[in-house]
Amino acid sequence: MAIFRLNHAVLYVRNVAESVAFYRDVLGFGYTEGGDAYQGAAFLRAPGSTNDHDLGLFELGPQAGPSGAGQTTVGLYHLAWEVDTLGDLEDLAATLAEAGALVGQSDHGTTKSLYGKDPNGLEFEIVWIIPADLLTDEDRAKAGVRRLDLAAEVEKYGRDARSGVGISRILA
């Protein structure tokens, strides 16, 4: 018996409607069936997911202060969502930048990542994983964090390069 993936995340937010709009309009999430039927809560599903829900949001109200996680309290740093293609990552970089939500981009060698913040200041990562058959010794040798040159990665692998890990790859 072993855990093999994250099923869903639940976040406390100041304003559910504002958070739903962000996750819907910027990241493409949609309501689950009945996911908008609860006062002060919402249940969303990632695009293409067959999961019951991928994200739950619970409203605390406007008096809720910012998260102190990583600064003054222990807590979760971020969640990471995987995209299917490098083109998806490139498109999301533009969407996040347009929304003023892109806060970083990193090259981790075998993965390429974007970092964003939602309206509550909660950070998330969006990751594309280099497929094993496309990995080079240079990719494997990169350790730590480097600046991501997304245009160079797209030129190297192509926009349609599919992620190397993930449940869609496992079941294919």
TrEMBL record:
InterPro entries documented for this protein: Glyas_Bleomycin-R_OHBP_Dase, Glyas_Fos-R_dOase_dom, VOC_core
Domain of life: Bacteria
Gene3D superfamilies according to UniProt: 2,3-Dihydroxybiphenyl 1,2-Dioxygenase, domain 1 (3.10.180.10)
Sequence ranges assigned to domain VOC in this UniProt record: 5-129
SUPFAM superfamilies per the UniProt record, alphabetical: Glyoxalase/Bleomycin resistance protein/Dihydroxybiphenyl dioxygenase
Pfam families in the record: Glyoxalase
Name this polypeptide is given: VOC family protein
Organism: Kribbella pittospori
